Amino acid sequence: MACEPWTAKLDAYFDGELPADEARALNEHLRGCATCTAESLRKLQLKHAIQAAGQRFAPDPAFRARIQKSIAARRSSLWKWGGLQALATVSVLLIAGALLLTLSRDRRGERQLMSELADLHVATLASSNPVDVVSTDRHTVKPWFAGKIPFTFNLPELQDSPFVLVGGKVSYLDQSPGAELIFRVRQHQISVFIFQERGLREIRGNEAVRTALSFEVRSWAHNGLRYFVIGDASGQDLDTLSELIKAAG
Questions:
Q1: 101 and 162 co-located in one domain
Q2: Which domain holds residue 245?
């Protein structure tokens, strides 16, 4: 079938393993193919279900007790084997291990957050109704969000810029409601997500430039809000749009 070469690439696409040029080609195909769009949404739903299942595990009290007992036994052995010097050495190793574990957990949380943003962006690309309020007028789009999200924001003036406001809708990240604004630049679609920073997992740094599933991502915090700009447009386009949004304050 004509769609088989495209659907075969979806798993690599969602895992961020597809080369940038192939990812862009797949984006274009998804916009015009209902069959591949349905398959991509099915895979996204399956991916979310697996992620949710993986977060449900929590150690029971018996498991915790066994771990504490094991630590106590090893501590007693350390005194017998090497006294204070051995204990000090192991303490340093444990502290270093804890720091590495914390850093790894933070990075894993950030990667998951970026992956979820990419999923939201792809779902918007694949949807036949990508926005709930359709307008190029910022004075129409901004008031539409009143009462639907627990904060307000400003939209940039796009006159004399290559960007066009398509519209917006309410999106959810970490179970927190926020705004997803859709902009178009030439043949590319860019999603701008705005959420309350306190409702999200910690993002290291006030300003970040990352990639997620072959998409360029720009992120920053301002007045308690966290902004994400994501799309397959050039990095320069995302930088320019980000600066326009920041200037709108």
A1: no
A2: 115-249
Q: Are residue 202 and residue 223 in the same domain, yes or no?
A: yes
| Residues in contact with 8: Cβ distance below 8 Å, sequence separation at least 6, in sequence order | none
For the chain, the domain total comes to 3
The pTM assigned to this predicted structure is 0.62
CB 163 within 8 A of CB 150: no
Examine the domain organization and report whether 51 and 86 are in the same domain: no
Q: How many CA atoms lie within 13 A of 198 on its CB side?
A: 4
pLDDT in tens, 77-114: 655 555 545 444 444 444 444 444 433 444 565 677 88
DSSP code at position 3:
T
Give the gyration radius of the chain's Cα atoms.
Answer: 23
Domain-located, residue 110: no
DSSP-derived letter for residue 224 is: T
Rounded Cα–Cα distance for residues 212 and 56 (Å): 24
Please tell me the distance from the alpha carbon of residue 44 to that of residue 30, in angstroms, as a whole number.
14
Token pair in block for residue 163: 């960007």
Asked whether residue 124 is assigned to any structural domain, the reply reads yes
Task: Quote the pLDDT of residue 62.
Answer: 72
Co-location of 123 and 179 in the same domain: yes
Query: Residues near 240 by Cβ (< 8 Å), separated by ≥ 6?
Result: 161, 163
